[in-house]
Backbone:
């Protein structure tokens, strides 16, 4: 969607129990924050009842005399799934990147694809390596379609024009990091009533997103924050990271920094490049920073970093005239030319094929002997006492499970990964193929069974296992209610290849 510039916008940062509201007007280089308000949901009303929530929002807007009709809705990180993906350096244009990521999303979320909405944001610009373009990293994000539909219905009930739907934490993180031109690698933490949201940014672009527990339980919150900061990606050569804290609860930034080992400073609305003199009384406006940040791309005429309402990964609309019709003449001419070339070249290729088949038949006994030798050596090498694969697997599994007193393993099955059978008609084993077989011999497979308090903690374990390089093919086998309170049973399958 082409970015549009709005004179005034409403930022609606949706939470589980309340909604933060900011009215921002575009005025020169520094937009003006006109009003800040918070809508506490009435009893029995939430985003699951968007029509009733829209009526309550409309009543509050009338009470506050807020007449802006265009709105941006921000969703909490708790409702998001985010994963870093790499696209080839050749995929420089938006359409090619979107096609590649659409295929990856279909492969990774095939069963839930119809219930999810995807979009992505560039994490870096594919810095050159040894003079050649490097693969580009993007942050692929997804949320349930029901939340986007509920945001549309809520704005319809409040008689608002919905401009976009995006993650509140991503908008706040990007707005904050833009005011830090000297920071190549930064962290932004927003602390709300129902939880905290942490984003990592590289060159003002989001590279990771985490949902954390509420800060009311201070020791547990600090412990979870420390683990999250240690696992977030960072740029090479970055000596010191800075975390910008946004909260309205009065958390001591210096004390928090000493506890997690990162430089921490309090954020304030003027640092976002806005004029907040009338709304930011005594620094109270920082609690509404997410709602303010949602409006800034629109009033500045820029595109949203993530927009689930106008996703770039939505399936292309069907054309009235098929694309093949435009290329029919060129295709026919190309087919005729290729047919003539193929016919003239066929005899030479057939003669060469016959010669290669004769040589292959003569080499078959040597190939079979070599394959048997490689198989025996690779199998023995996997049990070498200098490579304790199973202990390394248990160590990395222990580091992936959070020490929160709620998540624990109940059963673990670890075994040798099944080996592919050798095709008797295969060609001679190349050095690359032999190396691949040796690597395959070191792989072990496993299945982890465990219990935790909710689905979010299951996703937390799954994300941490994916971030450990030795784990491969990490997949959620399934979850179910264990029948004791809110306890959830889960299973995760994986392959494990220890580093050398």
Residues:
């Amino acid at each position: 969607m082409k970015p549009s510039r709005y004179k005034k916008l409403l930022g609606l940062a949706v939470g589980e129990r309340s909604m933060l509201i900011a009215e921002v007007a575009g005025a020169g280089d520094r937009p003006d924050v006109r009003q800040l308000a918070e809508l506490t949901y009435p009893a029995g009303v939430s985003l699951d009842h968007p029509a009733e929530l829209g009526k309550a929002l409309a009543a509050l807007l009338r009470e506050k005399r807020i007449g802006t009709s265009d709105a941006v809705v921000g969703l909490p990180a708790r409702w998001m799934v985010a994963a870093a993906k790499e696209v080839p350096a050749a995929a420089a244009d938006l359409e090619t990147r979107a096609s590649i990521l659409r295929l990856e999303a279909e492969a990774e979320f095939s069963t839930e694809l119809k219930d999810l909405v995807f979009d992505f944001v560039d994490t870096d610009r594919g810095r050159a390596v040894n003079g050649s373009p490097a693969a580009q990293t993007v942050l692929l994000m997804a949320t349930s379609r029901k939340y986007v539909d509920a945001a549309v219905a809520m704005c319809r009930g409040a008689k608002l024009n919905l401009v976009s739907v995006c993650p509140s934490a991503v908008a706040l993180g990007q707005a904050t990091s833009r005011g830090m031109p000297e920071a190549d690698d930064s962290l932004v933490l927003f602390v709300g009533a129902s939880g905290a949201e942490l984003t990592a940014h590289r060159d003002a672009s989001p590279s990771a997103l985490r949902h954390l527990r509420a800060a009311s339980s201070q020791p547990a919150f600090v412990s979870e924050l420390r683990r999250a900061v240690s696992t977030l990606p960072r740029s090479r050569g970055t000596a010191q990271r800075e975390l910008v804290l946004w909260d309205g609860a009065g958390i001591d930034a210096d004390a928090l920094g000493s506890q997690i080992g990162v430089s921490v400073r309090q954020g304030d609305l003027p640092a976002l490049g806005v004029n907040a003199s009338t709304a930011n009384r005594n620094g109270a406006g920082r609690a509404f920073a997410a709602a303010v940040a949602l409006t800034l791309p629109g009033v500045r005429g820029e595109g949203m970093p993530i927009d689930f309402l106008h996703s770039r990964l939505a399936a292309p609309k069907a054309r009235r005239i098929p694309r093949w019709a435009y290329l029919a003449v060129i295709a026919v001419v190309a087919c005729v030319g290729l047919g003539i070339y193929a016919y003239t070249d066929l005899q030479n290729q057939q003669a060469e094929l016959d010669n290669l088949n004769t040589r292959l038949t003569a080499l078959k006994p040597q190939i079979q002997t070599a394959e048997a030798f490689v198989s025996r050596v690779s199998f023995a090498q996997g049990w070498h006492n200098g490579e304790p694969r199973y202990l390394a697997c248990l160590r990395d599994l222990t580091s992936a499970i959070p020490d929160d007193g709620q998540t624990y393993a109940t059963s673990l099955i670890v075994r040798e990964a099944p080996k592919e059978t050798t095709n008797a008609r295969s060609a001679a084993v190349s050095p690359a193929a032999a190396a691949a077989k040796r690597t395959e011999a070191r792989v072990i497979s496993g299945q982890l069974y465990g219990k935790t308090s909710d689905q979010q903690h299951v996703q937390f374990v799954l994300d941490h296992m994916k971030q450990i390089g030795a784990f491969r093919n990490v997949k959620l086998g399934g979850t179910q209610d264990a029948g004791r309170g809110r306890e959830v049973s889960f299973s995760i399958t994986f392959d494990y290849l220890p580093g050398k």
About this structure: The chain has two domains: 8-299, 335-500. The chain has a mean pLDDT of 81. The first helix runs from residue 50 to 64.
